What does this fold into?
Amino acid sequence: MIGWLGLGTIGLPMAARLVKAGFEVKGFDINPARRAAAAERGITVTEKLEGADLLFTSMPTEDALLELVKGLSGKLGKALLVETSTIGPEASKKVADAVGPYLRSPISGSTALAEAGTLTVFASGPRAAFDKAKPALAAFSRAQIWLGEGEEARYAKLAVNLMVAVTAGMMGEALALATRGGIGWEAILDVIGESAVGSPLVKYKLDPLKRRDFSPAATNALVKKDLDLIVAAAKAAGVPVPLAEHMHAVYRDMLASGRAEEDFFSVAAGR
It folds into this structure.
């Protein structure tokens, strides 16, 4: 049996993919609407998760996760904790201090990829833990990459998210330059999509940009939170990250202007 704590925007489709793959999943979320949505997707909603072989967690913030693991300390029994949230390495070490060895398994991808079961998992922690969890991880991801025994997965997630944020900012500057030069909005987006810089992320965002549809796959508030973690981790590691710091300021401005809940690629359409 698999337990799942945190059935939000990304956690619910991941847990639902486990059900679809034939796993018995019991889960809980503090939000009643999320509990109801989970029940509709075949997840047994309960706070009693004793007997789980794997216990997944998907929390929105470091503080929420650290508060949760306080209650898990000494209560995991035989369950392996598989933690999928986006947190920094220092908070991750605190999780290990509270619960002992566990698998760090942050994911890369959108809610659409979670629904399709094609996320990417960056994993670190005991190799035996990764081997135990891999069949479950494969139910909601197309790739599962083990990176080492420590906090490597946390750094991988932050590194990828740094590139995601900078890509959004780079698109904004490129589009401003091209449109000022007389190229139509849709035309330059077509050019970018067919060029060498048309990465999977960029291509995924082209149609919403053409329609100026900023319904969130990931919000500006979420990316600003990730940049908080990225800048802090880089400072602790002694790594200069001027691009991350610039985008950190850009997303602070987005929140200050009341655009916290727009999709994070709205920065590409100008501020």
